[in-house]
Amino acid sequence: MSAATAQPVLQLVDVTRVHGEGEATVQALRGVSFAAYAGELVAVMGPSGSGKSTLLTLAGGLDTPTSGVVSVEGVDLAAAGAAGRARMRRTSLGYVFQDFNLIPALTAAENVALPLELDGRSGREARRLAQAALEEVGIAELAHRFPDHMSGGQQQRVAIARAVVGERRLVLADEPTGALDTETGEDVLRLLRARCDAGAAGVMVTHEARHAAWADRVVFLRDGVVVDETGADRVESLADTAAPR
Amino acid sequence: MTVKNALLALLEQGPMYGYQLRSEFERRTGATWPLNVGQVYTTLTRLERDGLVAEDGADGEGHVVYRVTEAGRDEVAAWFTTPVARTQPPRDELAIKLALAVTVPGVDVGSVIQQQRSATVAALQDYTRLKRSGPAPSVPQEPHDLAWSLVLESLVFAAEAEVRWLDHCEARLRRAQLERPDASPSTAPATATTAEESAR
Q: How many Å lie between the alpha carbon of A221 and the closest alpha carbon of chain B?
């Protein structure tokens, strides 16, 4: 991977996010720099409160940093404004949640087509792309089913189809296998992996080592700081965090 | 002990010579525990001495073929019906290292834990890469592939358990640090806390 020269799909530069004010201040992230490149799946591991969900929310443009820059495909999300970020969420990045977050009143195909239709694509084209995405995740035959009539694994497949539909190059996943049994969870990880192998950049937040192990790189967060990374020069990265906070 | 029982169990399938036994063993365990052929032959000699296997002539190419005896069959049956002993846990270098790290002054226990976590997750990534190269679990597998994928998952579970234990150790150290009324969590390293506790 020419990670050193290529532009990252997702980049965080010295990102800090502070929640609350005064005494109740919580520093969720403290000067985090992080990048995900096309073709790789990166896992972010850490205990609850380490800042991993905040990192994903910022990457998804659902929140903006207190300081530092978050950019997706070179676009600074904070500078893009709320409308720009909403557009990025419809076109450039997909989000997979632990509890699927499908709309119960819509069929699988309608759920997947929704972001495209919201983006102004024709209903026909949106349906065609949705069908292709459902095929990619292996459930084309369930296109007209409602979420309530699907298993957890099937619902998560629909959610992945929704996250990758169209030309999205960034897939963000928050504990995507958290609600699934081991085997179904593994199928979901295989799909995320396949999407990244096909050229997308993936970032998956998890507290489970066995799921993180599906990634090319595993980044460890503690108290809002990146403390280590598999494959990185461990001694150096640990020396960096040994500095007083 | 394990090699002896494994070879006897393989011979239940039919007579084999040393090299064949090694290949069959490795087919099932994915060469996770490589077996050299010399070890196979010394084990066979011992098994023959104990009356658990017997020479069964030679094949066309002159390999000495062994078969399992009645006593050998009983031995295999007993092996499969007896749980692996857990009364004497094998020496665990990591547990010993951490036990010492939290008691010896001046050790950065946090770093010890994180370095190990990183190394264990890296090993887990290697196992997962091997898993990924195989079929999805929902696809039916040949018995040998199934055997090997179960061995692989045993490694996955063990590595996963180690990471969970490290998470647990880290959480406990932090709690111990916070519960000390005179300790300022932002400045007091975990090692100081635990070293002082052990000195009480």
A: 11
Indicate the residue of A183, A209, A242 with minimum beta-carbon distance to B163. A209
Residues of chain A with Cβ-Cβ distance to B186 below 8 Å are 245
Neighbours of A48 (CB within 10 A): 8
Assess B184–A contact: CB distance below 8 Å, yes or no: no
Give mean pLDDT, residues B124-144. Answer: 80
Q: Which residue of B has its CA nearest to A47?
A: B167
Domain count, chain A: 1
The SS3 assignment for A99 reads coil
Domain region containing A42: 1-88+207-245
Of B117, B122, B159, the CB nearest to A231: B122
Q: What is the Cβ-side half-sphere exposure of residue B168, based on CA atoms within 13 angstroms?
A: 7
- More confident site: B133 or A63: A63
Distance of CA A14 to the CA centre of its chain: 19
Q: Do A214 and B186 touch (CB under 8 A)?
A: no
In a domain, A3, yes or no: yes
CA gap B22, B36 in Å, rounded: 7
Q: Look at residue A233 and tell me whether its pLDDT is greater than 80.
A: no
Predicted confidence (pLDDT) per residue in B145-192, tens digit: 888 889 999 999 999 999 999 999 999 998 888 776 554 444 434 443
Does the distance separating the beta carbons of A242 and B111 come in below 8 Å?
A: yes
Any domain includes A178: no
Mean pLDDT value across residues B20-39: 89
Specify the CATH number of the domain B2-81. Answer: 1.10.10.10
Q: Are the beta carbons of A59 and A52 closer than 8 angstroms?
A: no
Select from A230, A234, A242 the Cβ nearest to the Cβ of B125.
Answer: A230
Whole-complex ipTM: 0.80
pLDDT for residue A23: 84
Output the pLDDT for position B71.
96
In-domain check, residue A128: no
Q: What is the CATH number of the domain that holds A26?
A: 3.40.50.300
> Would the pLDDT of B74 be above 90?
yes
d(CA B15, CA A70): 66
